[in-house]
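Quick start: load a record and inspect it. Here is NADPH:quinone reductase-like Zn-dependent oxidoreductase:
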Amino acid sequence: MTRTVRFSELGDPSVLEVVESEDPTPGPGELVVDVAAIGLNRAESMFRRGTYIEQTRLPAGLGYECSGTVSAVGSPGRFAVGDRVSVVPGFSMNDYSVYAERALVPARAVVPLPESTSWVDGAAVWMPFLVGYGGLVETGGLKAGDHVLITAATSSVGLAAMAVARRVGAVPIATSRSSSKAQQLLDAGAAHVVATGEEDLVERVLEITGGRGVEHVFDAVAGPGVADLCRATATGGIVTIHGLLSGQPTIFPAETLPDLWMRSYTLFAMTHDEERLRRAGEFVGAGLRSGDFAPQVDRVFAGLDSIVEAHAYLESNAQVGKIVVTP
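Running the structure step on this input writes:
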């Protein structure tokens, strides 16, 4: 038997419960991972509440990202029993989940974990850095000298996006609602911080860029605030929306007829493509080995029984970086 987190109704963190279930058995193209650490993501909070990009099928499990050791394989492939691995978001949580002591996952959503990387870091690194690489470099074409405006910058994805920008020689501009987290963002690698609740976003960005605007926007919020992001974008720039934290409709600001590209991005476009995932893995792996990439872990919760508390903390927006649970 294995302990697994499940929920039978949509709602706040209190709907989560830990249950005993049969040990999973892998089929062809699947692996079982003995889970050492679980990385929490905002997508899982939205999936639990029923506000995610796909409908939640109840009863359901949770979790996209973990690290651990392969304990069973369903068919011969790249991985063998005993391998250290990380699981990345390459599946639907209606089909697979990793909030468990042992997790059944598709082999295509597994990447090798270097011996030098801890279990906690192995559960915290892939989701944010794959999102940052895929949205900014693989599809966005971010290059040296470009300015990139990053919203929700204190999130794990925001911090990773700043590191990706620095690795390619771009200039990351972070946003935060207040200046209270400005020094933390500067210490984490932001070249500039804009406190959107205290100063005018567009004016400040134009000041930073000499009136030109940013070449790239990497936005996790969406909603009506996109209008200001577009006004802060240079002619021909790219506004990439990779999250829907506002929960409000996003309308292209056609009244100003901005000369820019506005696009959406989800990680699945890359993690479901074996060749693109391979390139991303090489990019992130090289960053880990060089020391350019190191996940910022805000807090580690011990035991699956802490999952309700961990999700409440996830929704508090008090964290700077990744939240990890060790089963």
